[in-house]
Design goal:
The structure holds two protein chains of two kinds.
Chain A: H1 18-32, H2 34-57, H3 77-86, H4 90-109, H5 111-116, H6 122-156, E1 161-162, E2 168-169, H7 171-200, H8 206-224, H9 230-233, H10 254-281
Antiparallel strand pairs in A: 1-2
Helix pairs in contact in A: 1-6, 2-3, 2-4, 2-6, 3-6, 4-6, 4-7, 4-8, 6-7, 6-10, 7-8, 7-10
Chain B: H1 3-11, E1 24-33, E2 36-42, E3 45-46, E4 51-55, H2 62-69, E5 77-82, E6 85-87, H3 91-94, E7 98-101, H4 113-123, H5 132-142, H6 158-169, E8 176-180, H7 188-203, E9 207-212, H8 215-221, E10 224-229, E11 232-238, H9 239-245, E12 249-253, H10 257-267, E13 270-275, E14 280-284, H11 290-299, E15 306-310, H12 314-322
Helix pairs in contact in B: 4-5, 5-6, 10-11
Bound molecules: adenosine-5'-diphosphate and magnesium ion (MG).
Chain lengths: ~290, ~325
């Protein structure tokens, strides 16, 4: 094959699975970055540290974060405690870093212009990046949950689960509930991730995009804490993040969970539409 | 039109190329940044098979033009046609056939050279995943980077980075290469290699647009040139066409200075000067063929000992066109 192969057709054929390869490339690259691996390591250390601290100190019920008192009785509760601890700060931090970096990082380093001239069309790139960020977000939540489960099981053992209402369900049901909690947290954080991606299309400065994304969480939490603003609390980005406690009642209010999830996804839809519109018209000058 | 371009017209499957469809054509291409007009009504014409030297001082609008060609920047007005199709509308069909190096290379520092190329290759829907490994290895070897393929990009020297950028442009067979300052940061040996590479690519039938501020270098490889200054395309055409825009100077060596001078003046040559010490008469040649000058001098009875015609160098022409030489204008 000579270099400029003039026998090639004018429109080059596309190979099957192209989008899948693009997506895999995105995920692969995020998992090869030492910074991202360090973030996952920090996340995995949190349930580990809580577990060890509880093991050494045996707290009474009512001390510390939610479910802390139940951990000694059933290691599964370490999953809930760890997620409760991680969701206000650590998880948003990780999501803010990865989503804020997604477009701005490539723009700042100049790799965006080479991706776009491959060509990856802007819509395709945004979809692949969104799925990549969603994957990393899910992975971050999964790391907390799985390390929590394993640590809890090793230190405290697993057994039937006593719910908030006092009812007891089997370990199998308890594990399913834990799965539901994790999935809910993933969906909640996806709204934030989409916000980070939109912010990321606005600048070539990845650090600024990350900081702004994390700022979004802080502003929302702040507004949520002002009683005079209770009218808008229900629709704040972070308001229902702790709603996963619903999964620990004997009768899960599915309607409420779905309503909150719909709000998270609505946030995601709005932010992603904005990101798309912005990326379409963006001048790539770096 | 070169042989390669004609070959393109006859051997391509699918909708046949029209031999006269240029690789790149822009009409009235304009782009402002705030109040500054970075590119002003540029009518670029890059014929198929050409090696087009896109010249201009720093800040003259070369990179901005190239970014618009590749769909990275939106034009304020004007049209672009690449490989016969409108841009940026046909971007997804056109760009797989175009390799590009834009304002220096850019890769992920924490990935190796190979991993960086793989990342670009998996992103290309028209790249055959089954041949990815071989194509990456071939591109790396073509730019002489095989030995450093496994090194992290952050540890590359400037020249190695530039080479990796070129390798990325060569991952697939291309009909057009757009190379913005491809020899930046390369040592003389590397510069020679790039020149050689460009010639090879052109021989294979690719059209090459190479922007540069290194005139001498472009003069050696270009079949066509365009000269940018202050956002405007001042001259464009084949190398000889553009160079003939500048006046050639004829120098006649003869002991019979008076007769020779008279002959030149009779022919209508301008700016004639005498140099008694070297027994030379000089004048601007204009449209007059050199042999007519020789004939006229002899007919006038002067003993003709020598006659030379000096075409202006690209550099002289460049300086005379852009005024400021290579200083940044704004
Ligand atoms: N993103 C930008 N914002 C503002 N001005 C710009 C931008 N990019 C380029 N310019 C200006 O446009 C002019 C042309 O720049 P450029 O196309 O990079 O020139 P060249 O590549 O010929 O050196 C310069 O004066 C430069 O300062
Ligand atoms: Mg430039």
């Amino acid at each position: 094959m000579s270099f400029a192969d003039l026998t090639l057709p004018v429109v080059r054929p596309r190979y099957r699975g192209a989008f899948w390869r693009l997506y895999k490339g995105e995920v692969g690259i995020s998992l090869r970055r030492r910074r991202n691996l360090a973030l996952l390591a920090v996340l995995s250390a949190i349930p580990l540290m809580i577990g060890i601290a509880v093991y050494l100190s045996t707290p009474r019920a009512g001390d510390g974060p939610a479910f802390l008192g139940q951990i000694t009785g059933n290691g599964l509760f370490l999953v809930f405690t760890a997620l409760t601890v991680c969701i206000p700060v650590f998880l948003p931090l990780v999501v803010g870093v990865v989503s804020g970096d997604s477009i701005a990082g490539e723009a700042g380093s100049g790799t965006l212009r080479y991706l776009l001239t491959v060509p990856v069309t802007r819509t395709r790139l945004l979809v692949a990046k969104t799925l990549g960020v969603a994957t990393f977000t899910a992975l971050a939540v999964a790391v907390v949950a799985v390390v929590g489960l394993v640590t809890g099981a090793v230190l405290f053992g697993l057994g039937n689960v006593t719910l908030l209402s006092g009812d007891t369900v089997s370990l199998g049901t308890g594990l399913l509930r834990a799965l539901g909690v994790s999935a809910y947290v993933m969906v909640a954080l996806f709204g934030l991730a989409a916000g980070g991606m939109f912010i990321s299309t606005l600048t070539e400065n990845a650090i600024a995009a990350m900081a702004t994304t994390i700022g979004l969480v802080m502003v929302s939490a702040l507004l949520d804490a002002v009683p005079q603003l209770s009218a808008i609390h229900g629709v704040l980005l972070t308001h229902n993040w702790l709603g996963f406690g619903e999964f620990l009642r004997s009768n899960v209010d599915t309607a409420a969970v779905l309503r909150w999830s719909a709000l998270h996804l609505a946030y995601a839809a709005v932010f992603l539409s904005l990101a798309w519109a912005r990326l379409q018209s963006k001048d790539v000058t770096s | 039109m070169t042989a390669a371009a004609t070959a393109a017209a006859t051997t391509t499957q699918g909708p046949p190329y029209d031999a006269v469809v240029p690789a790149i054509r822009t009409t009235g291409l304009t782009r402002r940044f705030g109040s500054q007009v970075a590119v002003s009504a540029v009518d670029l014409l890059v014929p198929r098979g050409a090696v087009y030297g896109f010249l201009g001082p720093n800040g003259s609008g070369k990179t901005t033009t190239i970014r618009m060609l590749l769909g990275l920047l939106a034009a304020d007005s004007g049209e672009i046609e690449m490989l016969g199709q409108p841009m940026p509308d046909a971007l997804a069909q056109v760009l797989p056939r175009v390799g590009a190096l834009i304002e220096g290379p850019a890769f992920h520092p924490y990935l190796t050279g190979t991993a960086n190329l793989r990342r670009l290759d998996v992103s290309d829907a028209t790249a055959n995943p089954a041949t990815s490994k071989e194509r990456i290895a071939a591109a790396l070897s073509r730019v002489g980077l095989t030995a450093a393929a496994g090194k992290k990009y952050r540890n590359y020297s400037l020249g190695m980075k530039q080479r990796l950028g070129l390798a990325a442009a060569l991952l697939q067979p291309r009909d057009l290469l757009v190379l913005d300052e491809p020899t930046n940061g390369l040592d003389p040996q590397g510069t020679r290699e790039v020149r050689h590479l460009v010639r090879e690519l052109a021989q294979d039938g690719a059209t090459v647009l190479v922007s540069s501020h290194l005139l001498a270098e472009v003069e050696q490889i270009a079949t066509h040139i365009g000269i940018m200054s202050g956002g405007e395309l001042l001259r464009q055409g084949t190398l000889t066409e553009v160079l003939s825009d500048g006046d050639a100077v004829v120098t006649v060596t003869t002991p019979d200075l008076g007769e020779a001078l008279e002959a030149l003046l009779l022919l209508g040559l301008a700016d004639a000067t005498l140099d008694r010490e070297h027994q030379q008469v000089q004048a601007r040649l204009g449209e007059i063929p050199a042999e007519a000058v020789a004939q006229a001098v002899i007919n006038a009875g002067a003993r003709l000992r020598g006659l030379t015609v000096e075409r202006p160098h690209l550099e002289d022409l460049f300086v005379s066109l852009t005024g400021e030489g290579f200083d940044v204008l704004r």
